[in-house]
């Protein structure tokens, strides 16, 4: 006699989830133990197997195949559900932990980014201030240089004016024309002469 074990509990669930194609059965014996002798009424009896109906055998075989398919599908369904629950639990906890870590990392990166932006802003402000100071200093230097050049230009023109004024004293005008003619006649100059490479007069003709 055989009894099919399909029930709740850890052992039964493990057996259902086990990848076996055969039906799980458990042998159930009566009150007689294995060491008891044969009953006197059955001592000379010869066991003859009961007759088997071929039609009934085909029906039982077909039903047993269907039973195997149904049980296999149930085991796979239970296994898939348990694995899915386990995966969802692990994935859910891991996703929450990963989201928390990503949020902390994002906050840390944003804080670092703000600090870096502030540091770069200070450096940029110092650079801009330094550039402004240098530009202002260049403007002042350029203005001083232009003023100095203007002063030198004015002084040069004043010297030229003074030199012209001094040279103008020896200019020949209508007022001193007769006087200059008399001076030229009284002090004749001989420009007929030759000079060497050093600029010395080497030959000069006499005035006539």
TrEMBL record:
<keyword id="KW-0687">Ribonucleoprotein</keyword>
<comment type="similarity">
    <text>Belongs to the mitochondrion-specific ribosomal protein mS26 family.</text>
</comment>
<keyword id="KW-0809">Transit peptide</keyword>
<keyword id="KW-0496">Mitochondrion</keyword>
<dbReference type="InterPro" id="IPR026140">
    <property type="entry name" value="Ribosomal_mS26"/>
</dbReference>
<dbReference type="Pfam" id="PF14943">
    <property type="entry name" value="MRP-S26"/>
</dbReference>
<dbReference type="GO" id="GO:0005763">
    <property type="term" value="C:mitochondrial small ribosomal subunit"/>
</dbReference>
<protein>
    <recommendedName>
        <fullName>Small ribosomal subunit protein mS26</fullName>
    </recommendedName>
</protein>
<keyword id="KW-0175">Coiled coil</keyword>
<keyword id="KW-0689">Ribosomal protein</keyword>
<feature type="coiled-coil region">
    <location>
        <begin position="118"/>
        <end position="174"/>
    </location>
</feature>
């Amino acid at each position: 006699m055989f009894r099919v074990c399909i029930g709740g509990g850890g052992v039964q669930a493990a057996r259902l989830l086990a990848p076996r194609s055969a039906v799980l059965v458990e042998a159930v014996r009566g009150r007689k133990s294995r060491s008891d002798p044969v009953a006197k009424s059955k001592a000379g009896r010869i066991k003859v197997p009961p007759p088997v109906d071929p039609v009934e055998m085909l029906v039982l075989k077909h039903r047993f195949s269907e039973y195997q398919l149904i049980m296999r599908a149930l085991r796979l369904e239970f296994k898939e559900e348990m694995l899915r629950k386990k995966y969802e639990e692990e994935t859910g906890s891991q996703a929450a932990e990963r989201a928390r870590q990503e949020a902390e990392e994002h906050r840390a990166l944003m804080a670092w980014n703000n600090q870096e932006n502030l540091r770069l802003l200070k450096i940029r402000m110092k650079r801009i201030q330094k550039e402004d100071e240098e530009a202002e200093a260049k403007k002042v230097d350029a203005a001083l240089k232009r003023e100095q050049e203007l002063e030198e230009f004015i002084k040069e023109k004043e010297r030229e004016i003074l030199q012209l004024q001094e040279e103008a004293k020896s200019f020949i005008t209508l007022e001193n024309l007769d006087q200059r003619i008399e001076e030229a006649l009284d002090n004749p100059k001989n420009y007929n002469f030759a000079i060497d490479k050093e600029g010395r007069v080497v030959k000069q003709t006499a005035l006539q």
